[in-house]
Specification:
This protein has 252 residues and is an all-alpha fold. Helix content is 52%, strand content 0%. Bound molecules: iron/sulfur cluster.
Length: 252
Amino acid sequence: MVQPMPARPKRPKPRAARPPDPALRSRARKILTRLAKAYPDWGPTLDFSSPLELLVATILAAQARDERINEVTRVLFTKYRGPADYAAAPKGVLEQDIKATGFFNLKAERLRVMARGLLDEFGGEVPSDMDGLTRLRGVGRKTASIVLGAAFGVPAVAVDRHVERVAQRLRVDRAGPDIEASLRAIYPKKDWIKLTWCFVLHGRRICRPTPLCPICPINDLCPYPKKTKRLPAALRSNQQELRAQAPRRRPR
Ligand code: SF4
């Protein structure tokens, strides 16, 4: 049986960040330039053709690989065309349709309450601002930032576990009261979307939980260049492939 969604605790208003040190800003700028060159395919890795589809895909993507989500949504989006379809989906049916994404009971409930919120408060349209998006139950700040940036082109920094890890290792996480505020303080607004995806890809491909420091493209800009001194044996033979990890999308 699906557990009722717990009421979301009110987020404290973030404190204003202090202006970051110029040396940090300069290093951060070099990091982003280098990462954008290393990952010319930066950008969303979930498939979507509308803000609603991206919102749904992002909710489904929690604790799951994007490739799996894209497989599921390829079929899902032909069946569920608008918020009313999710809101009215009978118990058990939506769950079955998203089962392959994992945690499907919780995710189905999130989709239903999100869709009801869209219908009740926004006339069925996905709002294009942070306040509106985060008013929807089942939608947190990270999901809202992804939708804002990728679906509406509104500058936003999304902090997932990869962005968090990379920012901490690079020590660009202390210019504000939290990582999002810190990155927003260090980087100009025009770079917020790019930095989100560059950090995500760097965290997925190179600066993994066990990082691949010897082939890291920003090794000389990192305070921990030897966090991993040697590549794992299985990876030593295909360094070239690892470094490039063929772009999946058109470079921009
Ligand atoms: S040098 Fe290592 S720890 Fe630093 S960013 Fe690169 S992979 Fe991560």
